[in-house]
Design a protein that fits this description.
40% helix; two-stranded antiparallel ribbon; single chain; alpha/beta; 8 helices; 217 residues
Amino acid sequence: MKIREESALKIAEYLLRIKAIKLNLKMPYTWASGWKSPIYCDNRITLSHPVIRNYIRQQFVQLISEEFGDVDVIAGVATGGIAHGALVAQELGIPFAYVRGANKDHGLTNKIEGVIESGQRVILIEDLISTGGSSLAAVEAVKNAGGNVKGLLAIFTYGFPINSEPACGNTCKIFALSDYEHLLKQALADKYIREEELAVLKQWRHDPANWNAKTAV
């Protein structure tokens, strides 16, 4: 997964400033998986800040232009990637669709809303990649609809190992605008965390499923 240093630190600065990402070692957050975590990320908050959402849009557009050239469709991954994907599609002047987390339970039972035609070059937009399961499921859904997925782009990733081969093969590149390492670097520089907390935060990233705040601190 490729990361651009300057923009990665800027994105991290923005996410920390507006509390889209929160770091708390004393009172860890509980994820849906049951993991205890010193970090919580909700990038949907960026939509309430025009300067930040515009910067994110511009970074996505620049990344697409430099890495992929012409594409036919932007597809947002529900729910966090929908609005950002629509902004990117509007900027590029191309069609937009979005991928549901699950098939609609009535009507046409769609998994994809909007039009993706066979052979079209598609870029998927995510707000966050954690374990990668939902992101890669979206890639698979677009491929099943006949789309040619060229890239999966996210605002932020924790950087966990992701086995992208089954869904992506060699044709789909994965990028994130920022990641956990750049977040910690910026958090330390901006004094959101202390030097002695850095090792604990890195420890969580190494083994999140077995991390324990009481023994780690």
